[in-house]
Every structure is written in C-alpha cells, then in structure tokens.
Amino acid sequence: MATPGKGLYQCSYICIILALLHISYGQSTNYLIGVGISDITGPAAEVNMMGYANPSQTSHGIHIRQYSRTFIVGDNGNKTRVVFVNVDACMLSQGVKLEVIKRLEALYGNLYNERNVCISGIHTHSGPGGFHQYLLYDITSLGFVKESFEPLVAGITESIRKAHESIQPGNIYTNNGELLDSNINRSPTSYLNNPAAERKKYNYDVDKNMTVLRFVDANNKGIGMLSWFPVHCTSMNNTNGYISSDNKGYAAQLFELKMNNGALMGEGPFVAAFAQSNEGDVSPNTKGPKCIDSGKPCDTPTSTCNGKNELCIASGPGKDMFDSTRIIAQNQYNKALELYNSATVKISGPVDFRHTYVDMTNVQIRVNSTTTVKTEI
Fold first, then answer.
1. What is d(CA 357, CA 122) in angstroms, rounded to the nearest whole number?
2. Would you tell me the crossing angle of helices 94-108 and 146-165 to the nearest 10 degrees?
3. What residue numbers bound the domain in which 291 lies?
4. Tens digit of each residue's pLDDT (9 = 90 or more) over 269-278
5. Does the pTM exceed 0.85?
6. d(Cα 275, Cα 69) in Å, to the nearest integer?
7. Of the listed 283, 303, 315, 324, which one is catalytic?
C-alpha cells in the first residue's frame, strides 16, 4: 500500500528529451555543453514538507541543502538546444515551470522555452511544500507558500544561467550497469499480478539499472555527470523535520566534493546530478516493512499490522534514517563513479526534444471491446 502523498505527480505537461543519438568511438567534439548549479533551499522553519502529506511534518532545520543542477546540450550548429534540470525537490509544479520560463525569456528571448526546458524532481519527501498552484498539493501546507516558491524559481533560473554562461564544445559518453542492495519493491504482491510471461523477462521485481552520462570538454576533462537510477528519496521518513535532499542529493554532494578538489558545495565547476527514473513502487528501505509493535513482518497483501496500516513501517538499511540515507547515497555514488570512470561509448547524432500538453479532463480510455470511458472534472 502506498504511503499517502507518494505518487502525487502533477502532469499538466509532458517534457521528454529524446536521445535521438547514434553511437561512435571517435575523439571529435560533437556538442556544445554547459553545466550549472545553484542553491534552492527553502524555509527551514514551520513549513509543511511536500511528499508524505503529513500535516505534523514541518521544517525545523537543515540536514542536506537542496540544489538545482542544469545540463544544456546543443548541436554544433547551435540550432537546437535542450535543457535538463535536476532539482532536489519532491516534484515541480507547472507554476514553477512557467515562472522559470518567464524569467529566462527576459534574459535570452526564446532560446530557452517551455518546450526545450525539462525540469525533473528527485522526489525527496523532505523539502518545503506549498509551491503548487493546485489545492490537492497545498492542503497540508495550508495553502500556497511564497517562501517555498521563490527559492525554487530563483535557484532553477540561476542554475540555467550558469550553465548557459559555461557552454563550450565537448563530448558525452554513456555507460550503464546494475546496482544491487539499494532498492526493493514496496508492493511485491501487486507486482505478482503481472503476467508470468512478463515477469520472466526480468531478474528482479524492480529495475536495478543505473545509466550514466559523462560530460567532458574539448580537452577530455570532465565537467559533469548525470545519472538515472530508480529509488524513492524516502530514506528520511515522515517523522523527519529537517530539510533534506535525501539519498540522491547526498550522492550528488559526494560526487561533487570528489571532483571539485575541496571546493565548497555549489561553487565548484563540476556538476553531478543523480536524477530519478522509474521509481514508482521502488523503496530505499531495504530491510522491508515490519510491525513496529511486534517486530514481525506486516501482512503483505494489505501492508497492515492487526488491521492498522500506521503500525506497518519499512526501514533500513541503516540504524536510523540518517544512516540509511548515507548508505543508499554511498551505494549510488560508488556505482556512478565506477560507470563514469569506465564510460567509453561516445554519443553522436542530432539533438532534439518533444513536448506536448494533455487535457486530462478529456482523455478517452478504452476499457474493453464494447466500452469506452473518458476523464472529466
């Protein structure tokens, strides 16, 4: 059973960067590349956290600061650019996106717009909420919180500005591999409802694959790393009151501290981002769910203990949530560094993107051969 608040994704728009790319093994410079980072940490006092939908979970300090990390890739003809922004927030609202684009247009005209800028949240459940424009997402924060909204918008815009200012000729290399002992399926009984023939295609009931991009300049010097791995940023549980970018933010800071030769966080030239991928039912709490009153396993189909879901809590792998955050972060960092250092497959080909709006109040859904229904307000 999913924890209330998880899986709440605002889908007013879909921004997909397509890697319409071929693979080669040369030393030529194929792209224009820029990277940038900026602090987005919101109010650390008395603001409801976004993610668990727990009204009593409010901020009262900082564990790991939040950052926005931007990667700009353009073709050598400078005709097309795509912008990928990885943000240490639960998710981003359309309101944040549109305000960022508004500020970018004041700086660069139509160079960066709602079509070629993709903003992705790492899904931490320990960042200040209240930055959405829809009631559902702002109920537990008791409405819109400008003090949460403004640091997000300003920091994202600044990271894009820094990436724009750093654009230079470079190359991108890719690599991928399995990372074990870092994620589990939080709904394994639901997974078993998939057809057996489909389940036989996979070794695990969650995706264990990490993909890494290594960005280098014209002299083959590293300037950035972008990885994708599916695991919820819920190592910090819903009793936490400290702002935290959770396991992925921690992993990014480990990588940047190594690559930036002791520079203060957010000030080095190398930018490392641990982006979220298909983490829908993927938990970092690898000890699995237990009944907190007895220590016995929860009832698997219902995720309850004696009929009470609040007694069924997943934890691990550490001694507490801070230790668990560190361990899952270290695992992602170690694997990303290994893949980064061994990435030899050079990317080439055109740069492109796709963007569309979907009217979610009028989507046709075919139930069977005789029945079609549609969404509505």
1. 22
2. 40
3. 15-374
4. 999 999 999 9
5. yes
6. 10
7. 283
